[in-house]
Structures are given as structure tokens and as C-alpha cells.
Amino acid sequence: MKLSDLTSHAGEWLRGSGPMSEVVISSRIRLARNIAGYPFLARCSRGQRTTIEHKTRDTILNSQIAPQTLYVDLEQAPQTDRDLLVERHLISKPHAAAEGARGVAIGENETVSIMINEEDHLRIQVLRSGLQLEEAWEQINKLDDALEAKLDYSFHPRFGYLTACPTNVGTGIRVSVMLHLPALKLTSEIEKVFRAAKDMRLAVRGLYGEGTEATGDFYQISNQTTLGKSEEEIISDFKHLVIPKIIDYEHHARRTLLNDKTVALDDKVFRALGVLRHARLITSEDTLSMLSHLRLGVNLGRIKDIDVRTINELFLLTQPAHLQKIQGKRLDGDVRRQARAEYIRARLNGN
Amino acid sequence: MLKCDNCNKPATVHLTEIKHGKKLEKHLCEQCAAQNEGLPVKSHTPINELLTNFVMAHSGLQKGTEAACDGCGITWAEFRQGGLFGCANDYTAFEKDLTPLLQRAHEGATHHVGKVPTRRGGTGVPMKRQLDVSKLRKELAKAVEGEDYERAAKLRDQIKQAEG
Description:
By secondary structure, chain A is of the alpha+beta class. Chain A is 46% helix and 15% strand. At the A-B interface, helix 4, strand 6, strand 7 and helix 7 of A face helix 5 and helix 6 of B.
């Protein structure tokens, strides 16, 4: 598998199916792990960093952890490739921008990604479409066991898995669910979700995680507490308490729009469709916000000739790095906006 | 002014102890209080020193925590500035300063509960015992929460034994 093979379609997690997929885009679990006997990355010498990268890369590739694993050496990879991986949620923004020996192993149809030398020596991630937290946990837990059989993890009986930042110590787990909440946004009730999440010690972030804006009405909700609760407890809280409440809330807002504000809703939805089908120059921000309204329209049955999968793919394939990879060249400014508009028109009009 | 029970200096520390149902009062000078009772008393701390200590404590630049980790050389102040530890040893080297920080970040928790690797750091030593302890700790927390102190005491003894 090559990196360029990824650009023609969206990852497994964006296929638009899975439980609760009308609101829940994806479920993600990541585990932070460090190798015993080496300093954390901030205090690693160049040599130690390289050793960790080689050692873990070989372990991952030789242990048949995931079939058809693609390894990308991020120190060597050009910026477009790194941006592409960020857009596909396979590496983090800081990992793309960092320096020195580091990489990512991608497997199982992009549901698995293992970042080497990010903030911790290992950041293992499983990403699945819809609300599939238990399945994701089962998958990542096995993966973690397989790695642990070959690597010595840094672990302390009192503190648990030791991480560079004490906010991750203990289980080292971060459970994130990406939600599409356009109706709560349109009815100006989204603030209530933020407040409730804060009360439950959860973080709300944008499309690309830490420090990113909530574009396209996408919100990532994730746990902050990693110590003193087991993985299963954290996941169960999410599955049974947190996420169903927010989903109900979004459904309620969607019903309100549908029953009481039908014309206003249709106006939003069909304006978005009009822009996407006819614009000649479009920014990626505009695209996200129009696609968000379009997705709402499709979910509510206001538009019947476009499927959610196409919209989900467009969310991804119209991002700058994907667009440039598809076109096979660097695109700037209006040229890029024009290429984006043409691509969207072709996909939506042929549908 | 009262004089110190031990020497003739003015007594500035006044202690009341209840022993076998009897009230016992002690009046000591600062020096004797420090020596006999192990009470470090500083009654004449200048206000600016108090303030400095307060500010330092709240900015994480506490006095006496300038010590560096043997493993990676990072100091507590450096960690507070960057937010990242340098090596695994920092967790034990700065355990005292770290505990309140962990409590703030993790809803009051100070101990790991959850997955435990099957072996420990290349030694091949099974981690089963630690697993048991973390389970017991969890139960202990529940017992305390439910005010079942009898059970809590039993669990505490079991943890002590397991940690042996």
C-alpha cells in the first residue's frame, strides 16, 4: 500500500455507517505508552530518538500487528504527505510539524494508526465510524497486548502507564467521539452542550483535536481524567451517559427545526446545495459549513438524491492536502479554490 | 509574660495536650519547641517573605523543590514551565509535589486503576499482584464512599499485606 492510494477515497471511519451515524461521525480511542529504559522525548538525544523509532517500527512491522501495514517515515515525508495524514486523522498536527526521527504505522483500512515519537514514544489509535467504542476498545486492547509482548512499557504500580505529561498518566487513554451537531448550532443551544461537558470533566474540541476550531459543526468530545478510573469505566460513561444525552439533544433540536421551522431549515439546506452545485470559487471553510447543512438536509430527508457517504467523502477530499494530492500538483489561492469548486460540482452533479 | 518551661526565655509557643484524660499545658520558647516537640516555628516571618513563599507556592516554584531528577536532570520548575516530564523517574522523584497536581487533573485520584501490563519492564516479573492491589484500592474507595468503615479497614489491611 502506498500513501497515494489513500487519496481516492475516505478512510473506513468516514464511511458514514455504524450505530448513531446520523450524529456520531466516529469513535476514537488512543493509548499513550512509553518504552522503559529511555527518557521521554523532551530529554531524548538524537541517537535515542532514532533508536526508539527503529526499535518500535521493527516491532510493529514484524509482529503482524495489522495486515498490510503502511509505515510512513515522517522525518523524510514531504509536507503535503504529512498534511494529508493530518486531514485523515492518522497523525496529529504537532506530529506533522515536529522534527527528528518519527513515524506512523497505518493498518486495517486506516482504523489503526500508531504514532512513534509524538509526545510519548507510542500513541496507539483506533478510529471507527459511528458509535463503536466497545469495538474500538477491544481492537486497541489486543493491539496493545501484542505490542507489550515485544516492548517493555514504562509502568508504575501507583501511577500506571507513565506518560510525558501527567494529564495522561494512569490508563493513558483518550476516548473521543466526533459528533456532527448542526441543529444545536442552528438553534443556538450548542453552548449548553459545552457547559454540560465541562461539568462532566470532558473536553470539547474542533475537527482536528487540540487547539482547533469547530468547523463544519463537528465537535470532538473527549475524557480528561485518565487516573483512578478503569478503561472500561471511562468507555462505559461515554457510551451510556455522555453521548446518548448529546445525541438526544441534537435529535430534539432537529425535530424542532423540522416541525416548527421547516422553511428556515429548507432555506439553509437548499442554499448550501445551491452553493456547492454552482460555486466557481470556494474556500475550505465555506465548503465545510455548506456540507454540514447539506448533511443535515440528507439526514432529515429534505434531500433524497445525495447519500451521506458522498458528503462524508467530500468533507475529507476537499481539504487542501487531499485536493492537491488528487490534482497531483501544488495549488494556491484562487487556483485551489477553483479546483475545489470544480471537484465538488463534479461529485454532486453526477450523483 | 510567661517564661519557657525549659529555659528562661519568653514563651511564645503554647501547647495543650490531653493525655489519659488529663489536660497538660506547655509553654515553650521557639527554640525549645523546635527541639523538644519537633515544631518548627517562625513567628517573626517578615510579611514580604510570607508573600514570596505564597507566590512561589502558587507558581510552582516552591522552595526546596529545586532538586533535579537523577535520571534526566529536570527540575520541578522546568517541568512546570514546559508541562512535560523528562523521564519515568520524575514521577517518583517529584511524587510529593506531583500529588496535588494529579488530584486537580484527575478528579481527586492519586492511584492507577485499570489495565496492567502482564510483565514489568523486561524483568519478566508478573504484574498480577499489582493488579490485585489496584482492585482492592478501588473497592476501598467505594467502601469509604459508602461509609462502610469496617470493610474499609479490612481492605486497607489487605492492601498493606499485598504491598508487603
